[in-house]
Amino acid sequence: MSYVLGYNQYGKAEVHVVRVFRDDPAAPHDLVDYNVSVALTGDFDEAHQTGDQAKVLTTDACKNTVNAFAKEAGDAVRHPESFALALANHFVDDVPQVESARINVEAFPWVRSHDNPHAFVKNGDYVRTVTVTRRGSAPATVVSGLKDLTVLKTTDSEFHGFYQEKYTTLQPTNDRVMATAIKAQWAHSSNDKDWGASFDAVFDAVTLAFANAYSYALQHTIWEMGQAALDADATIAEIRMSCPNKHHFVLDLSSFDLENNNEVFHADDRPYGLIEATIKRTADVDASAAYDPGQAWSEAVAKVPADA
Ligand SMILES: O=c1[nH]c(=O)c2[nH]c(=O)[nH]c2[nH]1
C-alpha cells in the first residue's frame, strides 16, 4: 500500500510575549501583550516520510523569532497586524523551504492606570485578534478582529412574528434584554493603513450600532453592526460575526406577591442561540482564504472515490 501525505503544517503555538516601549527615558512607558501562533507549510514531506529533518525550521526557532521580532521589528510591534505581517513575510521570504506562513495573534489590551507613566490595568473586556496569511509571492492577507466583547441592552429589543409549528413554545416579546459576547473578524482589502485607527473605528462603530440600533432579533442587530463596521473603514471587504444569544429570562416572582416588570432575570448560560453572519461590501467579495484557512489551504478539494 502506498499512502499519500496530505495537507500538513507546523509551527509554535501560543508564544506569549510582552513588549515594553521605554526608549525615551522622559516618556511614559507603553506596552503590548501578544499571544502569537505560527503555522508553516512548505517542503516538509521528508520530515514526515523519511524522518530527514534537514529542512525543518524548528518550532523552537519559530518561538525565538517571535521573541526577537518583539524587539527587532521596531514600530511594527506596536500593532498586532503589522507585527504579524513582519513575521509572516520573514518566514516566507527568508526561509527557502517555507511556502506559506499563517500568524495568529491574540492581543490583550492594557490601559494606563491613573495617568501613571509605568502602571497599567489589564482591560479584560475583550481580546483583539489578527490572522495574517502569506503564501508564496502573493501579498499577505490580513484579518483583524475581536472576541469576548460582552454587551447587553435592557430594552429596545423585540422578538416576535417567528415561525410557528408544534415544537414552538417561545412567547413573543416586545421588550426583552438582549446580550451577547461579540466575536467579529474582518478582512482588509488594503494592507497600507493605520491599524490602530482602523481597529478603534470598527470597535466604536460596532458597539455604537449595538447600543443605538433598535433590534427585532439578534440577526437584525448583527446586520446593523456589520454594516456599521463596513461604513467605518472603506478598505474592509467583509466582516464575519459570531454572536451567542446570552438569554435573560424574566423570573416569575408572583409566588412572592411581587410584580416583575422586566427587572429581575435569570441569566442562563446554556444552551444558547448562536447567530452567525457575514456582511460583505459587494456580492463578489470572497475573502474566505484570508480567515484561518487551516486544512482548507490544500489545493485539492477532498474527494473520496466511490470505491474507496
Ligand atoms: O434574536 C433571536 N433570534 C432567534 O433566532 C431566536 N430564537 C429564539 O428562541 N430566540 C431568538 N432570539
Automatic annotation (TrEMBL):
Q: Provide the catalytic activity annotation.
A: urate + O2 + H2O = 5-hydroxyisourate + H2O2
Q: Name one GO molecular function term.
A: urate oxidase activity
As recorded in UniProt, its EC number(s) are 1.7.3.3
Q: Which residues bind urate?
A: T59, D60, F159, R176, Q219, N245
What biological processes does GO assign it? purine nucleobase metabolic process; urate catabolic process
Keyword Transport found: no
Pfam families, per this entry?
Uricase
InterPro entries membership = Uricase (IPR002042), Uricase_CS (IPR019842)
Binding-site positions, 5-hydroxyisourate: D60, F159, R176, Q219, N245
Q: In which pathway does it act?
A: Purine metabolism; urate degradation; (S)-allantoin from urate: step 1/3
- What family is it from? Belongs to the uricase family.
UniProt protein name: Uricase
Can you name the source organism? Answer: Branchiibius hedensis
